[in-house]
Amino acid sequence: MATQLGLYQPDQPGYFSRLNCISTEPLRTEKIRTWLACTIVAHNNAAGYGSLPTTLSNFALTGRIRDEYFPRISQPLKSQTELQEFFGKATRAMFDNPAEIDGPEPTNVGPFVRALEADLENVLQGMDGTSDLTRLHYTAVKLFLLIQHFFDPDSPERRLAVLEAYNFATTFITYIIEVDVRISIFAHIPVHLFRMLFTAAGAVFKVLNSSYSPDVDTELGNATLNQAISAMRKCSVENNDVAGRHAEIMRQLWLSTDTVSTPGCWQPPSLVHRSRFGASLAYDCLFYWRDNVGGQRSIGLNSSATRSDAVSEAASAATEHALSSNAPELQAQTDMDWASFAWASGMDLTADGFNFDI
User: In the chain, what percentage of residues exceed pLDDT 70?
Assistant: First the structure.
């Protein structure tokens, strides 16, 4: 909390003590490492909820502190810190860009994202690209940028830009599954990476069920979406936790939409819920589930076991069922109250101004 509020600085050991503190160099180095880790967590947590981080890590890590302590920090933490500095810069730019709280200005989205992409590539040049975790965080940051194209309603290049975001979302899903094979990341996945996995699945879902679907390989897209749902289930550590509920929400969204309908009757993929910036797409999927699927209590968010072979078999069966032309349409259920929806989504929705007592 202190890091999130910007109260703690790594080179001031006496900030939380009434006594004078004499710190040795090893202790100061350890404090720097701890501060960096806390700052990364604080930034990722804020970005996941679509809010602005208050800690400006790039201000605190300049000059003497960077020159003196960065050589003593491990390369993975150093690379993650550099990515986080860019992530904070990009998030702040997104907040400063719009004229109103409705996401980036439509006419500025393309050039805005391209400029940030160029900056990100410059950051990548000086990083340790051999680390699976570093590369995974890089792909998460790039996906965070590309989904901003969903804010653009009608520019000539919107279709290509959104399809680029779709392709990169499938790349992110495929890569995080590959990384799990090597380092078992799903057993201890950071919340930020899990949210980006859900966001990537949401991007795939939106494009597959839009007028853009003829431009993509729908069979491969459906298979990738199934893989994402299975991956989210593997992130679950106990029955009916946030990871399991998000996997079930995405599965219900998928089953509730006829993916083999005539493409001409669909609309371009769009965002209804736009005030969460980089997190808007994830929240938009949650609100679509609430409004059009309603939670489907008949199958229940807590009905699926987690981390078992039975789950994988059930997910595969659901895939075949969803792709068949005879798949029954799920009926929307509208009696789920806001408290239940907040519990199901695992996200704080009070900031959106809704009355949970409705």
Answer: 61
